[in-house]
């Protein structure tokens, strides 16, 4: 049978401290079966996955507590980073008994165990998680002039009109090669730094900026050079310096699992004068790739022929990317970057990521390393291997796709309790510094635009229909209302709120490349932009929102309320995702409550604040 009050891993009555723990930390567990069950003994059974060790600890019987019998044990967490799974065994003096796991009492051994993450405490820079991140697809953000494509790697062409639709139809060979460019540049980004600062931005995360044959630049051609369409190394220096003057850091995209086939390293089309791996087995880059046989067949990322996969274990590759005093990781940090976001972190070995972090911290002790992981990164299995992204030696934080997934489900009609449970799972499993350093977002260059997701009533079946799709006025009104709620939660939740360029301006679009249109300068949704700016200003000015504790007040159907509390006070986020007005009463200690977004005042009675929350409305109360 299921008995939820026998043990609750998220309650201080049953387990302290909460969540993940440092190596060697003592953890106190309490198990409280009903007296009528007649259990006389209880033990904790751990399976420590990385060491392969099983541990059983008999718990002391503390005696009755009302109708329950309390067992307790203080157990030292493993001395090294570990992923542990635990359940309980309860038995009587006559030997009869059962097990207890997350599903309740059971007699078999197919356990759904609780997770205990043990990590090594290491320094995590606070500037990233406490601040606001702005995610830019560089070709599409801002251009100052129409560039020329002549003589550059790849068969590129440039749109004359900034507001053209990105090319989405296959070429005569049936492939989409992403060779259409709009000419966004580093200088264009620099020209808009004041606008970004007014949004409260403290980090600019740039999709790849290195020389590449494609507009997305994830098929790197030369890690040592800025793509000529984006500018020069001097332009990068100016961007970094002027951003720092405004309190803004630059986060680069590190694409280290694969290169482009049209690169100085592979050189499949012979663009570069030196010999690449596809041209000669004597090339210094030949050992970077796995051929079978050379040169026609080789390992590539997800079988995409233009993205030949590198052998991360190749010593010369490790030296080039990480170890050498002028390695790629070190060089661009010295030139002004404040860290790296690791593309497809699942494809990179644990040791490789750990070496990147070491090189980063040796170059800049305040540098940040964020990994692209789409699931719960504390227990992720990738290629049949349990990963160690957050245990103290690899990433400081991860892209928080679970946040986006849970938030969209809630705003599209799901229960707020499911959002709370999903976020409590992450909070319980992640080391605290990693939870507060998560990159939270509503959309990225790999997802449909948030306004389209929340506004559209359906997803058109054909790619042609999705290319032509635009929200109707009613759909757009619905989408904007829900985006405003999504942004309210995003900016007030622990982790760095991350804006995908143009979401604050009301951009639409389904999947790539429809989500990668150009920023609509002069045609922004000014009201939506103002909403994001107000939230950004609050985030940048209130320490409670930056690093305050999180507590849940309400999570029931369409109603969600949570509090952040820090040195400058307590702020409460209240959201109603329903199409009808909702009422909510919550304890309130002050004489008044003010919605920091509108200035509206509310007056509690006898310590209780009763709110009428309009349809698809919300407050940030302080």
Largest sheet: 8 strands, parallel
The structure class reads alpha/beta
How do the strands of the widest beta sheet line up side by side? 23-20-19-18-15-12-25-24
Task: Give the strand tally.
Answer: 33
Shape: globular
Distance between the termini: 44 Å
* H/I helix tally: 15
The level of helicity is 10-25%
The radius of gyration is 26 Å
* Unreliable spans: none
Mean pLDDT, nearest integer? 97
Strand content: 25-35%
Description:
A hairpin with a 2-residue loop joins strand 6 (60-65) and strand 7. By secondary structure, the chain is of the alpha/beta class. It is built from 15 helices and 33 strands. The radius of gyration is 26 Å and the shape is globular. The mean pLDDT is 97. The strands form nine sheets. An eight-stranded parallel beta sheet has the order 23-20-19-18-15-12-25-24. Helix 6 packs parallel to helix 7 (350-363), helix 8 (401-411) runs antiparallel to helix 9 (416-429) and helix 13 (473-492) packs parallel to helix 14.
């Amino acid at each position: 049978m299921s008995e939820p009050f026998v043990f609750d891993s998220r309650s201080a009555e049953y387990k302290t401290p909460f969540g993940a723990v440092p190596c060697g930390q003592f953890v106190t567990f309490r198990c409280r079966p009903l007296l009528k069950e007649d259990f006389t003994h209880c033990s904790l059974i751990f399976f420590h996955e990385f060491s392969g060790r099983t541990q059983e600890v008999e718990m002391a019987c503390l005696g009755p507590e009302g109708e329950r019998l309390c067992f307790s044990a203080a157990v030292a967490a493993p001395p090294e980073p570990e992923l542990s799974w635990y359940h309980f065994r309860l038995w009587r003096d006559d030997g009869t008994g059962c097990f207890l796991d997350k599903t309740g009492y059971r007699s078999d051994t197919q356990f759904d165990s609780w997770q205990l993450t043990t990590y090594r405490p290491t320094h995590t820079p606070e500037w990233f998680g406490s601040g606001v991140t702005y995610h830019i697809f560089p070709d599409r953000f801002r251009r100052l002039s129409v560039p020329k494509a002549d003589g550059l790697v790849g068969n590129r062409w440039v749109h004359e009109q900034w507001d053209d639709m990105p090319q989405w139809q296959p070429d005569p060979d049936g492939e989409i090669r992403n060779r259409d460019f709009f000419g966004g540049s580093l200088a264009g980004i620099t020209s808009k730094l004041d606008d970004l600062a007014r949004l409260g931005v403290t980090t600019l995360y740039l999709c790849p900026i290195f020389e590449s044959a494609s507009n997305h630049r994830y098929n790197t051609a030369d890690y040592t050079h800025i793509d000529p369409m984006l500018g020069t190394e001097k332009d990068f220096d100016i961007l970094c310096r002027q951003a720092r003057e405004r309190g803004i850091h630059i986060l680069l995209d590190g694409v280290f699992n694969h290169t482009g086939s049209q690169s100085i390293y592979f050189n499949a089309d012979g663009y570069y004068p030196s010999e690449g791996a596809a041209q000669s087995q004597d090339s210094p880059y030949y050992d970077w790739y796995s051929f079978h046989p050379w040169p026609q067949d080789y390992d590539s990322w997800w079988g995409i022929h233009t993205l030949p996969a590198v052998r991360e274990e190749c010593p010369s590759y490790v030296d080039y990317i990480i170890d050498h005093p002028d390695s790629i990781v070190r060089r661009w940090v010295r030139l002004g970057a404040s860290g790296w976001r690791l593309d497809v972190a699942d494809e990179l070995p644990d040791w490789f990521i750990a070496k990147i972090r070491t090189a980063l911290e040796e170059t800049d002790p305040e540098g940040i390393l964020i990994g692209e992981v789409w699931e719960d990164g504390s227990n992720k299995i990738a290629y049949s291997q349990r990963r160690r992204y957050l245990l103290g030696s690899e990433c400081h934080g991860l892209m928080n796709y679970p946040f986006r997934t849970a938030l969209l489900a809630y705003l599209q009609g799901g229960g707020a309790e499911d959002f709370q449970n999903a976020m409590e799972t992450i909070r319980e499993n992640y080391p605290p510094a990693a939870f507060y350093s998560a990159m939270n977002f509503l959309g990225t260059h790999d997802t449909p635009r948030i306004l389209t997701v929340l506004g559209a009533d359906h997803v058109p079946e054909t790619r042609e229909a999705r290319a032509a799709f635009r929200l109707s006025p009613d759909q757009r009104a619905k989408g904007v209302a829900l985006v405003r709620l999504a942004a309210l939660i995003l900016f007030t939740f622990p982790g760095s709120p991350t804006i995908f360029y143009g979401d604050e301006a009301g951009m639409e679009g389904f999947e790539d490349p429809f989500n990668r249109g150009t920023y609509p300068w002069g045609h922004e949704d000014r009201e939506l932009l103002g909403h994001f700016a107000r939230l950004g200003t609050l985030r940048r000015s209130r320490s409670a929102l930056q690093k305050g504790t999180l507590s849940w007040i309400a999570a029931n159907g369409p109603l969600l309320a949570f509090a952040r509390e820090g040195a400058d006070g307590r702020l409460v986020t209240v959201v109603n995702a329903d199409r009808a007005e909702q009422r909510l009463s919550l304890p309130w200690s002050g004489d008044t409550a003010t919605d920091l977004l509108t200035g509206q005042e509310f007056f509690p009675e006898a310590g209780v604040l009763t709110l009428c929350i309009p349809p698809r409305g919300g407050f940030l109360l302080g």
